[in-house]
Amino acid sequence: MGQQDPALSVVVPMFNEEGVLPLLAERLRTVLDGLAEPYEVVAVDDGSTDATAAGLHGLRARWPQLRVIRLRRNSGHQAALIAGLMRARGSYVVSIDADLQDPPETIAEMLALARSENLDIVYGVRADRSSDTAFKRLTAGAYYRMMRRLVGKQVPAQAGDFRLLSRVAVEALRDLPERTPVLRLVVPWLGFPSGEVRFLRAERAAGRTKYPFSRMLALAADSVTSFSAAPLRVATWLGLVGVAVCGLLVIAVLAAFVSGRTVSGWPSILVAVLFLGAVQLLCLGLLGEYVARIYTAVQARPAYFVATDSDPGDAGDPGAAPEQRRTGDDPAVLADSLR
């Protein structure tokens, strides 16, 4: 890092957030200006179709610390978040959503905790979920319990993408070969010294949620298949159960044959066929999920393209290929490679 690098970077992925921009800028700038140290705000426009891009450039004219990165298309929340992390230059990097459900005022507490206890990671953890529906609390609790069983107890319960990372932790993320890591699992897996700051999550300040139930299911599926081979072991156990059931049915068929009751055994045959067919289809589906991930990895396509960066710096995007690390607005920058 050079002398111009800020002490703190705040990465804010955005998609169609024009309604919340003024309030976000007001609250976030008040907090960061109060720190009395150099900072940058890295706003990543994830291919918004509303006036988010225009609003960001309008804010940048009055807020010199605001940096605007625009992706060429909507690539998803995790991809936009990674794009911001890979381009952030601060000694500490905080990621926060634009909807103000995670309070910007907590950033000062996270930074103070990281410095006082020499921590590389500080998680923002929800103190309670009383504002959520019963269904949301049930599904969220099931997700975190499953992730803690797969990854380990180092995964903090009720912690989303509101976190602080030191420069050392960010550099460790750069060295990972994964193109689209699930940061909620990868960051705890790194094993750096970590702490927690608890907060009360507010209602969305404006707009609609970008994480409906379908995307929550997709996140859970990505979390499991990208970090564990447990589903493949489930398929193995189902196969063993199927073999055992078939063995019992063979014994039943032989017993029926000996006793002369072979015609009346069609229900057991039907059950066996249906059961084995279901197990085979389930196992093929699980295998297909992993084959699809291998296929995507072999293609080596970027998860996102950076169209413009209002302040790329001298080095450009450290995640881009060497020949593509240019300054200015470069349509050829491939910004998702983590090497």
How would you characterize the overall build of this protein?
The protein is an alpha/beta fold and 339 residues long. It folds into 2 domains: 243 residues, Spore Coat Polysaccharide Biosynthesis Protein SpsA, Chain A (Alpha-Beta Complex); 70 residues. It is 47% helix and 14% strand. Strands 7-5-6-4-1-2-3-8 form an 8-stranded mixed beta sheet, with helices on both faces. Helix 5 runs parallel beside helix 8 and helix 9 packs antiparallel against helix 10. The radius of gyration is 25 Å and the shape is elongated. The two termini are 17 Å apart.
Give the CATH architecture of the largest domain.
Alpha-Beta Complex
Class from helix and strand fractions: alpha/beta
CATH class of the largest domain: Alpha Beta
Instruction: Summarize the amount of helix as a percent range.
Output: 40-55%
Shape: elongated
What's the arrangement of strands in the largest beta sheet?
7-5-6-4-1-2-3-8
